[in-house]
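Most newcomers find our protein records easier to grasp once they have seen one. Sequence and backbone structure share a record, each on its own labelled line. Nothing more is needed to start thinking about how sequence determines fold. As an example, a complete record with its sequence and its structure tokens follows.
=====
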Amino acid sequence: MAYKSSGGQIDVPGFFADLVRCETRLYNALNDLLRERHGIVTSQFELLRYLRDHPGSRVADLAAEFAVGVGATSKGVDRLEKQGRVVRQPNPSDRRSSLLALTDDGSRLIEAAEETFTRGLAELVGGALDDASAAAAVHTLAKLRSELERRQIGMPTG
């Protein structure tokens, strides 16, 4: 089945395959880079970055942001906590949950890793996209993500 756009036919299954394969290859390449230089993987980088930018988040907030189950997210936080990069603090407004915070080590790590991540991603994408096509891709993917999130499509059930 093809999607009809103003410019003609688009192979929707092909678009999906390209989108997923690009994401997988970028994620894997960044995993390797972050592991080699900082001892973390991309999922840990994303969790640490989110916690830096959203102080006082809960595991449920992380799970919602990344469209991942709460159990898997909690296990990821457990690993970061064991490594001394994150701490759980009592939530004064809800004793059933904890608030998450970066440790000093976690803060230093995310600052260093973010530079590596940003440069690495720019190099990976820069070879394939010029400024105009990169800007169009950013706009298009942000619009698609926003619509999927607005409609709560693809959210885990547990």
